[in-house]
Amino acid sequence: xxxxxxxxxxxxxxxGSLPPPAASPSILQNRTAPARFQPEVVTTRQSRGLExxxxxxxxxxxxxxxxxxxxxxANVSYITNLGHRVYAEDFLRSLDDILREQDxxxxxxxxxxxxxxxxxLDFPDExxxxxxxxxxxxxxxxxxxxxxxxxxxxIVKPKSYLLxxxxxxxxxxxxxxxxxxxxxxxxxxxxxRGRRKPSQLFNNRSLEKLFHKFESVKFFLTREQLREVIxxx
Length: 233
Description:
This protein has helices at about 5-10, 50-55, 75-80, 90-100, 110-120, 140-155, 205-210; strands spanning about 25-30, 40-45, 65, 85-90, 130-135, 155-165, 175-185, 185-195, 215-220, 225-230. By secondary structure, the protein is α/β, with parallel strands linked by helices.
């Protein structure tokens, strides 16, 4: 397993601060595990949330983007072609590693929380200029979710943006798990790779409460019963 110093070496220079933008952007890190499920349903859809996320960074280069979905070629290529760096981590697989067969509605203990944050979010404050969260947060037990959002609040820069997805069917017992691939600034390819029980389901009010430390929260409801959420730090 990589040490913390090894994991940060591609991100931090010897001075302990982010290096200047490189002429050729690169992937910072990839510890993505193979998908547990084969894609079953593939759809292409317009995404206002994605359009706004990239619209905010459209005229900049050399930014650092954190991708919760693990590395896939479509996302890596799109982000690096814009002149940015991407750190890709399969948060859902990491979540399964610590919870194993535990029911997602059961509370995570402090040891599990500390391990998850150490493995996935052990970065200095204000490291990232944006985060593609996708649909991972709804599968986290409440205490782990709160700790993750608190850590995210500190490792992203002020005025930066997070893009997250939450299923809008508040009565669902299981919901589709998606792999998100960027087609262009306005379009996503969604691959359904199974179904799982969410730890909790959210409406607009509960999402505003969830991101209460952040400056603003904006919602878009999609036809797949997915709620797109743009969060401004």
